[in-house]
């Protein structure tokens, strides 16, 4: 039962609809290029599935980046470099989420299997198929080492060697003197 139907059944006055809600419904009702079937009539769904998934993922990242760029207070938000940075961070966050979901699914399947064993019963067949899933892929080096992006400012301070001004001048311009072996 929809929210409007519930309000009508309760006898409440329906609130006037906002223009934003109407625009969202119009956008959802309008046909998009993703909903239309292929023009040539071929059914290559198996071959195009990975490409379509990648396209939809890229489109989702672009939409989220546009939203971030539009609703944040960045000084120079229209630059390509800022857009690429935001899209990269979104892709990284999505990869982290996907990896965490895979790990979580595997751990919950393992735990469910352990609980069924504790009860002394076999798990139902659908659960067995899920518990025998392969391990999620190891995260890439970029996912594992995210410290380069969010480095702690104290780390670089520990590696800086402090010298007085006169020491720096002396190291860069040694005092002219006799060459070794000359007197």
TrEMBL record:
Residue span of region Disordered: 1-61, 123-147
Biased composition (Acidic residues): 45-58
Protein name (record): Uncharacterized protein
Organism: Phyllachora maydis
